[in-house]
Amino acid sequence: MPNLPHERRIAFAEDLIAEDVNELEAFLRVHVGRVYDEVGPSGEISFALRALLFLVSDSAGMLSALLKVDDPDTWQRSVIVREWSRLRGTAMDFNHCDGYNHALWWEPIRHYDAADEADEQSRIRQAQGAQVV
Q1: 3-state DSSP: the chain helix, strand, coil percent, rounded to 5?
Q2: What are the pLDDT digits (tens) for 58-86?
Q3: Beta carbons of 26 and 2 less than 8 angstroms apart
Q4: 83 and 62 in contact (C-beta within 8 Å)?
């Protein structure tokens, strides 16, 4: 089980590395597995927890594969942001268990890189300007 988050800040999806995904997936497997052990192997809650573990593995696998792509396409960049957000959002409820620090790698990632962020800000300004007219 991971003990501490990275000592670096991840501002954009391009900052993610395979170790980030592996640590977050391991964190989720440990905590969801602990809850699964408490509820037992039968019943609706256990079925839901098993399904959640499959989804975590799928998201982590997709994210890991896309992080290996050099110069990802627009759709791949969007999927990287989305899958990290899904894993992060799933882990949020378990965050307090081991004293994780939100200010480090738990912050939300909304853009692949600074250029994507600037493009979005430009589109927002253009939309606001169009509304003023």
Answers
A1: 70, 0, 30
A2: 999 999 999 999 999 999 999 999 999 99
A3: yes
A4: yes
